Automatic annotation (TrEMBL):
Any matching Pfam family: Methyltransf_12
The organism of origin for this protein: Dactylosporangium darangshiense
Span of domain Methyltransferase type: 58-154
Superkingdom of this protein's organism: Bacteria
One GO MF term: methyltransferase activity
Keyword Transferase: yes
Identification of the protein by name: Class I SAM-dependent methyltransferase
GO BP: any one term: methylation
Keywords: Methyltransferase, Transferase
Lineage: Bacteria, Bacillati, Actinomycetota, Actinomycetes, Micromonosporales
Amino acid sequence: MDERTGRWRELNQASWDERVHIHLGSTFYDVAGFGDRRDSLKDFEKAEVGDVTGKRLLHLQCHFGRDTLSWAARGARAVGLDFSPPAVEAATQLAADLNLDARFVLADVYDAVSALPGQTFDIVYTGFGALNWLPDLPRWASLIAELLDDGGFLYLAEFHPFSFVLDDETGRTVTNDYFDEGPHLSGGPGTYADATAETEHDVTIEWTHMLSSVVSAIAGAGLRIEFLHEHDHTFYLQRQSLQEHADEIYRHPVGAPRYPLTYSIRARKPG
């Protein structure tokens, strides 16, 4: 194991801190356009979560808050939490600029309970590209159970781990070990939002959690899984073999065998 994996939190935070302002200015995130539409959520997320009017919603690993503010625009009493000071600062400013009622808390996700003392929520939400930064899913699920009010639910939308087992060019050949969850050295110069951006903090540590690991962690925390949905589309060029459709949705070519690219879970705390 590379000695850098023990510094996963330090390396990952340095990378995210550096990239916040790159992302704010990128066409990928289109902050100006977001100010007009105030909605960065996927259609199935909105349908599966349902009406959030008046609900207390916590968004874990919120980055600079687009999704948090999208829930706020839909009527939620939203709180976003992230470990990056520049991200929380940017999110707070964006909320003020758009006059949206949301607040943001600076804390590592594993410190969320102590960062929100005595607070519980109707909904805990976590979106795409979050779980791969976490080494300990049972601990993550347990803190979510503690943060949920009785009868509240976790809603998770993520990239499907099976899609990363296959080769990038064709998406038909198994090239990676599904059962090797990591840690993995990752990263590189630039960012998914701007490949040409000049960056210094280019080493990150990630995990590729099996779907069974995610489901088992959630169930093990005492949450009752209401559904697990697997989707045949995604929201970036996850494999070179995918084809772009309207609204930046990527799908398998027509007539080609399909496999899941994303998934979503809703799990409720009894009570």
